[in-house]
Structures are given as C-alpha cells and as structure tokens.
C-alpha cells in the first residue's frame, strides 16, 4: 500500500542520516525481512554486528540478540525497536540459578546458548548458537565436565551428536519450539511422504526425530536438524520439491522467496513467536527517528561476557 511504501522510504532516508543498518532474524515479519540489510540466524547476525562499519544497528530480533551486538560492538549504538521483544528460553535461567548450578559442579565448563541474558553469559565460558553448538562442545577436551544451558532439546541433540556423557543439561525450553511435537511432523509427513524434514534442534520433536532416524524409521538422508540459516541453505541446495518445516513459521517467507518452485509446509502452523512479531515497520521508523530503545550492557558484565561470545563468533 501507499502508506507502507511511504514508511519504507522514510526508513531508508533515516538509515542514511544515521549511518544505520538493519539486521533482521529469519523469524521477523515479511515486511521487515524484505528491507533488512542482513537477514540471518543468530550466529550470522552476531557476526554482522561485529563487522559492520555503520554507527547505528537497528536490531530486528529479540533483546538477547541486541545485547550480544552491544557486547561485540560497544562503540556502536544498538537499537531494539520494541523493548518487550524478549525470549521465553532466555528467561528460563537467571544468573543466580547458574551460579548455584556451577557451585554444585565445581570445575565444570559452562556452555551457554546465545539465547541467554548478558548476566548469564558473564557466568559462562563458551557461548554457542544452534549452528555451531556441536563444534563448540567438540572443541572442549573430552575429560572436561560440561554444563549446557538453557535448552534441553538442543542439549539432547548436542549430547547425541557428540556422544558426550559428561554433559549436564539445564531443563529450559522455548515455548514456541517445544510446542512442535512429533505428532505434528508425522501428521504432515503422512500426507506428504516425499517431503524432506527440516527440524530446528530447539523443537520438542527433535529428540524423537533423532531416535526415529537412528532406527531407520525416518529416512536419514531426508531428515535434517539445522539452525535457521542452515535450513535456508539446505532448502536451496536440496533437490526435493517439498519440505516440512519444524521451526517458527516466519522463515517460510524467505524459503518461498528464494525457492519459488518448491513447497514449504509448516509442521505446526501455530509455531509463531510473539516476541519476534513485535517488530513492525512503524516501530523501526520510530527507532531510527527517536534513537530508541538503546540497548547497552554495563561494562563489567560486558567484559566478563565478551570472551564467551568471541569464542562463539570464532568457531564454526
Ligand atoms: P537460529 O536462528 O540461530 O537457528 O536461532 C533460532 C532462535 O530461536 C532464535 O531465537
Ligand atoms: Fe526465544 Fe523461542 Fe522466540 Fe526464539 S522463537 S526468540 S527461542 S521464544
């Protein structure tokens, strides 16, 4: 509509005025995906935030992502268009809970998923995302006990892939991905037996799919457990015509855009992250105009969290 194109024009003008870029996660609404300078998964966006020469980063994603950008680039202004864009998974562990857990396992190495607060990262040795979690754990000596947090499904996936026995897993979950159950995937697969499965490791169905794959019940060559960035890569490279997508449904916009001749079916069409959907064109414009909401991390916490985030950016 006219209104929409006017807002987009204004966003472009303000971006120039501020020397700003827009980073957007794959779960953002289509309008935001379409105007992003960089669209990607958590790891790609953290790397883009570290590398950009822009003065201002408008983070179209959720709070922990903007915090990570602020820690990587303290000299830049990081804006989150809606302060309520949080994450249920990041909320599943506090720094106090982590300190207690560490006290129960003295000497253990702490590996935290990037979906955590800056305070939790400051208590961690390594950060990881879904695209490099296996490599990060494999980079830690075999005899070293590991505390992995906060996602239990990603934790089980990593434990299974690495064969690591000395890894304790926090029992947190993302309410959106936990709600994608084995029944959802099986239901769609029954109607589309030829489809390839793209499953995010945060999903409730990821654990059972690993089992079904190992038992030969799900075809191994057609079952892929991947980060959102790697799902996009796989859907481009694969020769399959149909895909069952087990993650937040926002990514399907990008899959369809990049592969107009292929079909993408949501495992659970209700897998919608309310936090990711809080970012709108209007709020992005207001963020640029009014320089809000600035996300910064206290220097002491940022310094303590930086090593674990640098390791995440460097590996995988
Ligand atoms: P990735 O895009 O890194 O796979 O992460 C998924 C997610 O839930 C981010 O909030
Ligand atoms: Fe957090 Fe889940 Fe939303 Fe990702 S999809 S931002 S993990 S609540």
Automatic annotation (TrEMBL):
Record Pfam families: NadA
Segment forming the signal sequence: none
Location within or outside the cell: Cytoplasm
Domain of life: Bacteria
EC number: 2.5.1.72
UniProt GO MF annotations: transferase activity
Keywords, comma-separated and alphabetical: 4Fe-4S, Cytoplasm, Iron, Iron-sulfur, Metal-binding, Pyridine nucleotide biosynthesis, Transferase
Cofactor binding notes: Binds 1 [4Fe-4S] cluster per subunit.
Binding site for [4Fe-4S] cluster: 87, 174, 273
Cofactor needs: [4Fe-4S] cluster
Pathway named in the protein's UniProt entry: Cofactor biosynthesis; NAD(+) biosynthesis; quinolinate from iminoaspartate: step 1/1
Classification via InterPro entries: NadA, NadA_sf, Quinolinate_synth_type2
Catalytic activity of the protein: iminosuccinate + dihydroxyacetone phosphate = quinolinate + phosphate + 2 H2O + H(+)
Chain positions recorded as iminosuccinate binding sites: 25, 42, 113-115, 130, 200-202, 228
NCBIfam families, sorted: nadA, PRK09375.1-2, PRK09375.1-4
Family indicated by similarity: Belongs to the quinolinate synthase family. Type 2 subfamily.
Protein's job: Catalyzes the condensation of iminoaspartate with dihydroxyacetone phosphate to form quinolinate.
UniProt-listed HAMAP family: NadA_type2 (MF_00568)
UniProt name for this protein: Quinolinate synthase
Originating species: Sporosarcina oncorhynchi
Lineage: Bacteria, Bacillati, Bacillota, Bacilli, Bacillales
Gene it is expressed from: nadA
């Amino acid at each position: 509509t006219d209104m929409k194109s006017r807002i987009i024009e204004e966003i472009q003008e303000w971006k120039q005025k501020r020397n700003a870029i827009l980073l957007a996660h794959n779960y953002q609404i289509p309008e935001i995906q379409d105007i992003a300078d960089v669209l990607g998964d958590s790891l790609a966006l953290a790397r883009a935030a570290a590398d950009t020469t822009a003065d201002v980063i408008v983070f179209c994603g959720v709070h922990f992502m903007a915090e990570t950008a602020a820690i990587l680039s303290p000299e830049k202004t990081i804006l989150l268009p809606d302060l309520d864009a949080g994450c249920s998974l990041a909320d599943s562990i506090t720094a106090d809970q982590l300190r207690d857990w560490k006290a129960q396992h003295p000497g253990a190495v702490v590996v935290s998923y990037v979906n955590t607060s800056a305070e939790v990262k400051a208590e961690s040795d390594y950060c990881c995302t879904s695209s490099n979690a296996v490599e990060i754990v494999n980079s830690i000596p075999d005899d070293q006990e590991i505390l992995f947090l906060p996602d239990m499904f990603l934790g089980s996936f990593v434990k299974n892939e690495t064969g690591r026995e000395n890894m304790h897993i926090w029992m947190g979950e993302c309410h959106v991905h936990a709600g994608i159950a084995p029944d959802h995937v099986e239901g769609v697969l029954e109607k589309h037996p030829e489809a390839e499965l793209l499953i995010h490791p945060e999903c409730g169905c990821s654990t059972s799919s690993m089992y079904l794959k190992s038992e030969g019940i799900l075809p191994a060559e057609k079952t892929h457990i991947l980060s959102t960035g790697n799902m996009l890569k796989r859907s481009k490279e694969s020769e399959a015509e149909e895909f069952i997508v087990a993650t937040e449904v926002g990514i399907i916009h990008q899959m369809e855009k990049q592969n107009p001749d292929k079909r993408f079916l949501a495992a659970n069409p209700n897998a919608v992250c309310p936090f990711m959907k809080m970012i709108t064109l209007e709020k992005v414009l207001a963020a640029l105009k009014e320089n809000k909401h600035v996300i910064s991390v206290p220097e002491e916490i940022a310094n303590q969290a930086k090593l674990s985030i640098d390791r995440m950016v460097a590996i995988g």
